[in-house]
């Protein structure tokens, strides 16, 4: 169960990274660009941490995750991002309750905290657009 959720999380973080990179291209507003850049840099970090954890648990990496379709409308994408980040918080909270090894705690806690922060940023963006 934990391994399956971790694999899905790796794929989701990869998709979010690329989705947020496409969102970044849709605005010249320095605040929105900063919010989006912060999120996609965190998503890349989560992807890398989760891949490392997956390797520790299985001896292999998750291969060839698929990219998500790019963003074309900033407000719509901010809403999608907000919902996705809130879903991520719930997923990581449940995963924290079932960690199989102590080394899983830090990456999950960091990702859960970052997802909450991203949700605040995307909520602010959505409501301002």
The whole-number mean of residue pLDDT values reads: 97
* Number of H/I helices: 4
Estimated radius of gyration: 15 Å
Could you give a short account of the major beta sheet? none
Total number of strands = 0
Low-confidence stretches: none
Helix content: over 70%
What is the overall silhouette? elongated
Task: Give the distance, in angstroms, between the N- and C-terminal Cα atoms.
Answer: 39 Å
SSE string, helix = H, strand = E?
HHHH
Give the percentage of residues in beta strands: under 5%
The secondary structure category is mainly alpha
Walk me through the structure:
Helix 1 (2-24) packs antiparallel against helix 2 (30-58). The chain has 4 helices and no strands. With 129 residues, the chain is mostly helical. The radius of gyration is 15 Å and the shape is elongated. It has helices at 2-24, 30-58, 74-96, 105-128. The longest helix has 29 residues, at 30-58.
